[in-house]
Amino acid sequence: KYLKILFLFFILCLISNCGYQPLLTESYQNFSVNNFNISGDRKLGQSLTNQFNKIKGADNNLTFNISASKKRGISNKSSAGVVLEYNININFNLDVISESNGEKLLEMSFSEGSNYKASDSYIDTLNREKKIVDNLIKSIASQINSKLNIIFKEK
From its phi and psi, is residue 90 left (phi > 0), alpha (psi between -120 and 50) or beta? Predict the structure, then answer.
C-alpha cells in the first residue's frame, strides 16, 4: 500500500516538473500586428485589437482588416411579455496580410455567442452583456492567435 502511494507521488512529481510548455502561447509568438483597419462596429473591433500586443523585433509584421458586428436578441420572454433572457452573437471577418510581401495569410470568419439572463435593473443587464462580450472577444482573440502561431510554425 505504501509502495503504491510512493509510486503515485513519484509520478505526480515527474509530471508537474517535466518542463512542459505549450507552443501556442504568446511567449512563442513570432509575429506582430502593426496596423488595424476596422469596419462595422468600431468599438467591438477596437476591443479585439486591444488583445494583440506589438512585439518589437518580430520577424513577421501583419495588418489586420477587421469587419465586426454584434447582434443582440431576445431568447426568452415571460407570458406577460417581460424579457427573461437575451442572446448575443459577435462576428468578426478577418483578413491578415503580411506587410513584407502583401500576401494574404489568413481569411476567416470568427463567431461566438452566448445567452444571459435579464436583471431587474437595466444597468446590471448592460454590465452582464459587457462582461460576456469581453469574454467572447478574448476567446476569439485566442483562436486567432493560435491560428497565426500555427501558420508561422509551418513556415
Answer: beta
Q: List Cα–Cα distances, 119 to 79, 122, 133, 134, in angstroms.
A: 17, 7, 17, 19
Secondary structure letter of residue 118 according to DSSP: P
Q: Is the pTM of this model over 0.85?
A: no
Q: What is the side-by-side order of every strand in the sheet holding 60-77?
A: 31-40, 60-77, 83-98, 104-117
Q: What share of the chain in percent tops pLDDT 70?
A: 85
For residue 24, pLDDT beyond 70: no
- Return the residue matching grid coordinates 447582434: 71
CA distance linking residue 59 with residue 71, whole number of Å? 37
What is the pairing mode between strands 31-40 and 60-77?
A: parallel
- pLDDT tens sequence across 122-142: 999 999 999 999 999 999 998
Please tell me the predicted confidence (pLDDT) of residue 136: 95
